[in-house]
Amino acid sequence: GNTRIIIEPLNALGKTYTTTNQANKAISFLNRSVQLADSLEAALHLKEAYLNRSIALEKLGKVALALKDFKKYNALQDSQLNKVKIQQIEELRIIHDLENKEKSIELQKNKITLLEQEASISRLQKWLLGLGLGFSLVTLGLGYYGFRQRIKRNKLEKEQQKVLYEKELAFKKRELTTHALHLAKKNELLGDLKQKAMNFKTAVSPQVGYQKLINTINFDLQDDNNWENFKHYFDQIHTNFNSTVLENYPTVTPNELRLMSLLKMNLSSKEIANILNITDGGVLKARQRLRKKLGLQSSDSLERMVMKI
Fold first, then answer.
1. How many CA atoms does the CB half-sphere of 34 hold within 13 Å?
2. What is the pLDDT of residues 77-119, one digit of tens each?
3. Is pTM, for the whole model, over 0.85?
4. Could you give the count of Cα atoms lying within 13 Å of 126 in the half-sphere of its Cβ?
5. HSE on the CB side for 82, CA within 13 Å?
6. 24 near 14, Cβ under 8 Å?
7. What is 13-49 written as a DSSP string?
C-alpha cells in the first residue's frame, strides 16, 4: 500500500527499456512514475522521471515533448540547488550566531573570574568550608566502607550456601548409590536364598514350611517399597528426569523408566539385573526394546542418550 516505494522501480524500468532501445515500452512506466511522484510531491523522484522520459521521447523522435520534460527537469534541478544554497546560508548564519554566543559566554566567564579574584573570603568562611569538606569526606569514606563490607558479607554468604548445597548434593548422591547397591545386594541374596530353599525342598520330603519360606521370599522380591524409596532419592538428585522422559517418550513403560533411571546412575548390567530381579539376558533384551522405542540407531549409545536427559 506504500505508493512512494513504487516510484523508484518505475523509473528504473523506464530507464532500462530506454537503454535497451525499447523506448516505446519505457514511456508507460515513466508516465506512471511522473504521475505518482507529482501527486506525492516527491521532488527527487519527479526530477529523475522527467529526465528519463525526456531521453525516451527523444529516442522516439518526439523532440518537442522531450524538450518540455527536460525544461521541467532543469527547473526542479535549479529549485533544489536554490534550496541547498538557502540551507547552506542558514547553516552559516547559525554557525555565526553560535560563535557570537560563545564569545559572549567567554566574556561573561572572564568577568566572573575577575569578580571572584577581587572578592575576599574571610578566615571563618575558609574554616567552615574546610570543616564541611572534611565532614563530607568522612561520611563518604564510612559509606564506602559499609558498602564494601556488605558486598563481602553477601559474597561470603553465597559461598557458604554453595558449599552447603554441594555437601547436601554429595550426601544425597551417596544415599542414592548406597540405596541402589542395597537393592542389588538384597535381591541377589534373596535370589540365592530362594534357590537354596528350592534345592532343599527337592532333597527333603516337602513340608508346608518350605513352601511358606519360598512364598515369603517371592513377596520380598516383588516388594515395591524399596523401589519407591530409591525413586524418592533419585528424584532429589535428578530433578524432573522421569517427567521429562515421559513427556518426550510417552510410550515408555514403568519398567523401562526404571531401567533408564538405573542407566542414569551409570550402574553395571549385573547391578541392574539384581535390582530389577531379572537375568543379564533379560537386561540385554530390555535395553534392545528401549533402544527401539527411543528410535536409536545401531551406532547410537543408549547410555550417552540417557545421560543427556
1. 18
2. 888 777 777 777 777 778 877 888 888 888 888 888 888 777 7
3. no
4. 4
5. 6
6. no
7. HHHHHHHTT-HHHHHHHHHHHHHHHHHHT-HHHHHHH
